[in-house]
Amino acid sequence: MNVLHVLFKVDGTEYAMPAADVVQMESYTGATPVPGAPSHVAGLVQVRGRVIPVVDARTRFGLPAGTPSLDSRVVVGQLGERTVGLLVDSAREVLKLDPRTIQPPPPMVVEGAKGFVKAVAQVGPRLVMLIDFPRVVGEEAADVDGQR
Amino acid sequence: MSGSGEFAEFLPAYLAEVDELLASAQRDLLAVEDAVRKGQAQPRAVRELFRALHTLKGLSAMVDVEPIVSVAHWMEASLRLADQAGGRLPESSVEPLVEGLRAIELRVRQLGAGKTASPAPTALLERLEALGPQVLDAAPKRARPVKLDAEAAFASRLAPSEREQLEGGLTAGQRALRLDFVPSSERAAKGLNINTVRERVAKLADIVKVLPLSGAAAGGASLAFALLLITRAEDAALLDAVGGPPAMVRSLEAPEGAAEAPGDLAPAPPDGAALPAGAVLDEELDEPEVRRGGGLLRVEVSRLDEAMEWLAALVVNRSRLTRAVAALTQAGAPTRELTAILQENGRQLRDLRSAILRLRMVRVGDVLERLPLLVRGLRRATGKAVRLELEVGDAELDKAVADRLLPALVHLVRNAVDHALETPEERQAAGKSPEGLVHLSCHARASGQLELTLRDDGRGVDAKAVAKAANAPVPDSADALLDLLCRPGLSTRQEATRTSGRGMGMDIVRRIVVEQLGGELRMETRKGAGTTFTLSVPLTVTLMDAIVFECAGRRYAVAVGTVEELIDVAGVVRPAGADGLGLVERRGAAVPLVSLARLLDAGSSGDASAKGGGAKALIVRQRGDPVAFAVDRLLGQQEIVLRPLEDPLVRVPGVAGATDLGDGQPTLVLDLAALGAARMGRRKRASRAGEWVS
Question: Looking at the record's lineage, which domain of life comes first (chain A) (predicted)?
């Protein structure tokens, strides 16, 4: 059974997550920084009246910071009760992935990606990384010690 | 046809409202009677009685109950005169007034029982009519004309009747005073705020008016209230009621032989306690209105919020207690009973919390009470036949949400009748019933949201016409069409050209539902068949008065109640080695000055400008001591909807939540004390040089 996925790009690499976990996609016009939040949190954005945190995929993946452009997208994902956005370089494609083409990631990828990539899918000639959205988003709270 | 036929649908709402008015009128009349016996004036009760009858008359006229209108009219007329005479009524007037109220009550009961109100007794009407001249005779003769020493700023804000009331009090041998109350956070903590002060002062005096003042008032605070009173109480008792100095009492009586022109004679007020002209903050704060009726109690929402705050403090305390007990248990102490009590305590707190939350809930049905009248008016104005169906059941909504939501619903209903529904002729030509339908239903959803659906069976939104008016391509989905409809400015163009379709104020509707309340707005429309709007709104929101300011190019908000004072930053002393922390002088004491920009930036290696600029500062108490937070610019004060940040990623100390100031971007609502405590602690540990204890 093919599962619909949302594809997005970060620093030239293609990633994907199940469309069922994605609420919507929004263009990115900047976020309101939150002092004391983990460094991979770009800040807050308002999506249809809701205020949600946005995780910067580049910072999270340990990549050089990018400049927001017209292509930048916030992939708004649902994580149980939580709604969190993921800031990516672009997101244009939605496609069905055949489970038979999805493989566990090679050990080197696992190590390099800090567990953010949980599988790799072959789409024609392209390799697409399936991200572990809960892990990417993380639960790390404030970096202020002893407060929580 | 009194109270029947086309008004039958309004009758329940009318009866409920009238019941309350009658109850308060009776109470006020008793107070008046009591005062009359003692030969005193009772201006406040007379005024309230007058207002109640005035409203009663208006409501009764609306549902066309002529007998009640007549009785109320003559009562109102004599009370108006009494009000102008400083609240003085002759003893002979009490009995007819009592009878008048009784006559009204009797007829209200008749209506409630489904009967027709019986005609007003002619004899009673004549007696009531005769009251007017009697009241005039009883009015105090101004043997000794008393002039008010009202300063120019006051004079313009006093209604003639208020002026007369003050003068009447003076003539009657009472004192007319101005009592200043200066709120502060210490006082608020002791339960002393303008509302409690009103109550306390009301026991000693008749409050004629309460004027909020801003600018440098007595005691250096930026906000104060002047209460204008008539009283026989001693100065000391009055001062005590407002919490002592910096409060002050001043007579409003002009010295003998003073000039007529107000302003000319305003003596220079002592020690800089002047009331700056044009320092008017707001319109007169409305008298808090607590009326009893039908087992209902009206309470100011701010008091419920206060209760909520205390509850929050309890919850925090309980978690400390839990930790302490856990530590005891670990140390081997016998804590079984303690633990059981703690659990019980936790349940009680939860129950208390939901009880307080329930207090804030109002029935949606009550909120929508106005809509039938609105539709009735629209029916007349447009000449369209409209049926309004309400299907709201027992759903409840937080008062604050309801208050914001109602204007959006009014907009939508007005649009539906104005634009969506066709004329009876058009409808018949289209094979529809000549009477248009507007249907409003609502139900609570499990997710803590209330869903309201407003449906009409009108012509539907003409996507092409809207696209043309908006100068945009024809939208291909209902969402896109709604986006277009919600474009600000679309309305005016449509309104001007009378293009069919919706648009009037849709941007406002969206703003309220989506941005202010954090809800959702959806639309479905079918040409010729009608349009349905669906609004999902949260059942509760948190509102607060906030000071909005700018710091390092960003806007922030902070709760007014937490800010002790706003100051201009000048004369900063920067002790060597204090890590950029400065000291400012405030009433003879040194207060540490922290650059907020620096503080906010402290997490990221801190390359904020070391000079720690900032022209203004907010003084906040942090663990009991004042600390000044320097910011760039103050932008004003406004009420905001606080959206708590629930995600663990952004739940950080010092950030109470976010709000939307209207730009669609979240603005942080800061808790400066917590921010300072959390972030300065860090800095201190990071660099031992930062000892800045003053």
Answer: Bacteria
Q: Which residues of A touch B648 (CB under 8 A)?
A: 139-141
Name the interface residues of B facing A (CB cutoff 8 Å): 513-515, 517-520, 554, 599-604, 643, 645-655, 658, 660, 664-668, 675, 678-679, 682
Query: Residues near A11 by Cβ (< 8 Å), separated by ≥ 6?
Result: A58, A61, A63, A64, A66, A89
Is A65 within a domain?
Answer: yes
Is residue A128 exposed (0-12), middle (13-18) or buried (19+ Cβ within 10 Å)?
buried
Residue A144 belongs to some domain of the structure: no
Closest-approach residue (CA) in chain B for A37? B650
Per CB-CB distance under 8 Å, the chain A contacts of B518 are 49-51
* Fold of the domain spanning B363-538: Heat Shock Protein 90 (3.30.565)
Backbone angle region of A70, left / alpha / beta, with phi > 0 → left and psi within -120 to 50 → alpha? alpha
The CATH class given to the B5-138 domain equals mainly alpha
Q: Do B649 and A50 touch (CB under 8 A)?
A: no
The residues, ordered by sequence, that sit 6+ positions from B371 with a Cβ below 8 Å of its Cβ are B388, B390, B409, B410, B413, B440
Q: How many domains does chain A have?
A: 1
Taking CB atoms and an 8 Å cutoff, what residues of chain B touch A84?
647, 649
Class of domain B152-251: alpha beta
CB proximity under 8 Å: A 26-85 to B: 30, 32, 34-39, 41, 44-46, 48-53, 55, 82-84
Contact B653 A36 (CB under 8 A): yes
B8 pLDDT band, cuts 50/70/90, is low
**CA distances for B588 relative to B583, B584, B585, B591, angstroms:** 12, 10, 6, 9
Determine whether the interchain pair A147/B679 forms a contact, defined as Cβ–Cβ distance below 8 Å. no
pLDDT in tens, B17-60: 888 888 888 888 888 888 887 777 778 888 888 888 888 887 88
Task: Give a yes or no: residue A142 inside a domain.
Answer: no
**CATH code of residue A43:** 2.40.50.180
Task: Tell me whether residues A139 and B649 touch, CB distance under 8 A.
Answer: yes
Beta carbons within 8 Å of B98's beta carbon, 6+ residues apart: B29, B33
Q: Using a CB-CB distance cutoff of 8 angstroms, which residues of chain B are in contact with residue A87? A: none
- What value does the mean pLDDT take over residues B344-354? 83
Per DSSP, what are the bridge partners of residue B622?
B625
Write out chain A residues lying below 8 Å of B643, CB-based: 51
**Bond prior to B246 in cis (omega within 30° of 0):** yes
The pLDDT of residue B146 is: 52
pLDDT, averaged across chain B: 77
Where would I find the beta strands (DSSP E) of B138-222?
175-181, 205-214
Name the minimum distance, in Å, from the CA of B397 to any CA of chain A: 19
Domain containing A26: what range? 3-137
Q: Which residue in the set A30, A48, A82 is minimally distant from B514, CB to CB?
A: A48
* From B520, B600, B675, residue closest to A49, measured CB to CB: B520
- CATH code for the domain defined by B542-686: 2.30.30.40
For B560-612, the pLDDT digits (tens) are 878 888 888 887 877 766 666 788 888 888 899 998 998 887 544 444 444 44
B650:A37 CB<8 A: yes
